[in-house]
Amino acid sequence: QVQLVESGGGLVQAGGSLRLSCTASGRTSMGWFRQAPGMERVFVAAISSGGYATYYGDSVKGRFSISRDNTNYTVYLQMNSLKPEDTAVYYCAARNTGSGWRSVLDYPYWGQGTQVTVSS
Description:
Blueprint: E1 5-7, E2 10-13, E3 18-23, E4 29-35, E5 42-47, E6 54-56, E7 64-69, E8 74-79, E9 88-95, E10 109-110, E11 114-119
Parallel strand pairs: 2-11
Antiparallel strand pairs: 1-3, 3-8, 4-5, 4-9, 5-6, 7-8, 9-10, 9-11
């Protein structure tokens, strides 16, 4: 199985930046999702196991960047120009096989979540 450990959440003012980290127990394809209170868990970004393909949700394109360091199986989500609407619990997700990227059903393994709060 794959275990994921997330870190980097916190409180930031609108326009600021945060970097989330997710360390996996192996070399896996990984994604980031977020969930605000009363809302569905939605896709944010994903990266292939080798780091050569990346995908982004429409609401974060141009502001967020996903990357990885496969020397330690860590994936990063650099979040810039943060908006109050980005406030949510952010979840790291992983899979060993598959071809989909944007659905929660594409990922069998999930991190514990980290809170990101953007003040206006």
